[in-house]
């Protein structure tokens, strides 16, 4: 038995396989992390573009004389997100439109905030970390609106 043990210690033929087996989970985690980061960046750009498209929609509709509601603006955001152009999951896409006090006569000011949680590839990452939040103000011409003085 003593003669077998020293020969196993000197044998290096399986060392590469053992080292690869030890580093393989780290390499896979790094690969999945790179994919998740790229996917997150694509979704961030999609959310940003949806916000801009919805703001443009609201401005054009107001210029046409269609006094759209906050709910119809949020519905437009949902429709764009689920559409073929962006294909974001509707269940995790949450648009919110709120009125803001305006500082300029004749301008209705809204705030569009969107929260989106993309699907995850790595189950050990907290989904709250991946949540994308983006918002912008929308300014609509409305002659009946008076500015709020501080």
Automatic annotation (TrEMBL):
Pfam families: TadE (PF07811). The keyword Transmembrane helix applies. Keywords: Membrane, Transmembrane, Transmembrane helix. Residues 14-56 form the TadE-like domain. This is TadE-like domain-containing protein. It comes from Tsuneonella aeria. The chain crosses the membrane at residues 20-41.
